[in-house]
Amino acid sequence: MEAEKTKKARKPRKQPKVHVEVVGSWQDRPAYERFQHWKPHIENMYHMLGYGDVTVEPSQEMIDEYNAIQANKEKGA
Q1: Which pTM was predicted?
Q2: Number of domains observed in the structure of the chain
């Protein structure tokens, strides 16, 4: 009889330690910027659900808030 090879138990791989430094919180961004980021994803979701070509637009409140922030930045600069 041939000698059977015994399988050694594999050691779990160590996960590399990753350090991520977040400069600014996503929540600190104006709602309009967050909306612009998610807009294509939202439109794609509606398309996949069978609603056809759907265009989502930000609310006027979001636009006004963003414009006010931009105006304040220009005054400070």
Answers
A1: 0.56
A2: 1
